[in-house]
Write a structure and sequence with these properties.
mainly alpha; 86% helix; 0% strand
Length: 70
């Protein structure tokens, strides 16, 4: 988690604490969920990229093990 993430989380908590009405609370909650979903999407993209790299390395290792060095 980066400093930026921590700052955003603090801002979300501050916004939730400062909510005066149900509407304020709902907006702050939605903002928090939006940030959470963006974070999950970013992590999913990173995992997909790492998975692709591992698959490429596995394929290369399989070819080398089979004697195909080209």
């Amino acid at each position: 988690m980066t400093t930026s993430d921590l700052d955003t989380h603090k801002a979300i908590l501050d916004r939730l604490k400062a909510s005066q009405t149900v509407e304020d609370l709902a907006l702050a909650t939605c903002w928090g969920f939006q940030h959470l979903f963006e974070h999950v999407a970013e992590q999913s993209r990173k995992i997909a990229a790492l998975t692709a790299t591992l698959e490429e390395q596995r394929s290369s290792a399989d070819r080398i093990a089979a004697g195909d060095f080209l």
